[in-house]
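Example record

The entry below shows one chain as it appears in the dataset: sequence first, then structure tokens.
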Amino acid sequence: MSSTPNIPPHTEAASLPRWVMALFVVAFALVAFLLYANYAQRQALRQAEEDAKTKNQALVAELEKTNSRVADLKGQMDVTTQKLGLTEDELARARGLAQAVRKDQQQSEVQLRQQIGAVQADTVTKFGQVTTQLSGAQTDIAATKADLEATKGKLQSTIGDLGVQSGLIARNHDEVEELKRIGQRDIFEFTLTMKSKGPQHVGPIQLSLRKVDPKRFRYTMGVVADDKNIEKKDKTVGEPIQFYVHGARAPYEIVVFDVANNQAKGYLSTPKSATAAPPGQ
């Protein structure tokens, strides 16, 4: 009988321990995580790079705009500087003109003050002269008033031929002038002659000398007033001849103060206003 070699009996390979398998799984998971993390980091870096590139392009564009604005501003500043240079020149000229005008004004003010002072001094002098003149005029007026009062005292008042109290009576040419100076009535001096061919105009009326008696100082006179002929017969020198004229409140008066051969001298006295009819007319 042949012998068979002794073959050891087949036995199954022993299985790996579970912890080794778990270790492989953990290692695989770790590698996968690392790969994913590396990928994610790359993607993040790429995205960051893209964002940075975009921002860089935006910054470049903004920088170009800023450079353009700076260039514009620089140009504007150059133009403004030129303009300011012209304005400063003009301001310098204006200041010079203003100083010249101010200097002229100061000189004018000095001259004006001097002129005002001279005018004031002249005014004071003239005012003193005027005051002196006024004082002299007041003295003259007082003297004239006193003279008029004295003249009134010399002149007489009497009753006229109509029985009306007359005004002041003048007895000669000088006293007639005094009556005119007093100015209470209008005075018209006359010289009548019998040789006249017709009535003589004396103020607003007409007079004619019809008869003269120098020895008795008497005369007869014709009066034409308001188209009426009035005869004043055999009147005495110095006697007021009175008659009314339409529209006059007071009577007209004729006073003859001197008679000679065929001649009579005297005056007509009329009121300054004749606004009412005479009494009894």
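Notes for this example: Residues 112 and 118 are 10 Å apart (CA to CA). DSSP finds two helices and ten strands in the chain.
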